[in-house]
Amino acid sequence: MTSHLHALCFDANDPLRLARFWAGVLDWEMADDPQDGIVLLPSDDTGFRIRFLPSQEQKAGPNQMHFDLTSTSLENQQQTVAKALELGAQHIDVGQLPEEGHIVLADPEGNEFCVIEPDNKFLADCGFIGALASDGSQEVGYFWSKALDWPLVWDQDQETAIRSPHGGPKITWGGPPLDPKLGKKYRLHFDLAPPADGDQQAEVDRLISLGAKRVDIGQGEVDWVVMADPDGHEFCVLTPR
What we know:
The protein is α+β, with helices and mostly antiparallel strands.
């Protein structure tokens, strides 16, 4: 069996503050997990938790991934924006056009996210987290489809998207050109967990056969394996749990 997507991890200068922000926006429960530290547990079909990891490194440039949050109406979109602003978000300009219906915000540490306009057909059957929108090539979309065993739900003009057979958000990749890497590593990454009866090394070998590679980001002696996908975006393979 393949690994499952255990968590989306945020590097955070103040993990507790950032966790409280996203718990408020998403209406998820915050927990202090002995293995994962400060985490948010999904209250819907998202299928993965969100981890907040302490980091001294400051954010440099746009993130490689961001949330697209859905809306049921224009009023609902404004309510989500107002709630996020009250919790500490701010409006930002990433080059969006005035006629575009989505609203771009940043959380208290500058991590970008979008509140999407209602009647967005691509996210029509998704929950509040409609998508995790990512910078990435068509090749990396194919890689993650095989890595997670999630089917492709979009593959057109080098843009790709996958989604769990159980529902939840789509993960999308926008195709070229790719933004250059800024900083030592990306601020957001995936944690993959092999099945409880699985084998970490066998899973690492499988991912390497799909195009990933092991990388050293200064992690030292740890029980997880740090890897990078074909575009160079880091992720971790945990021990079976």
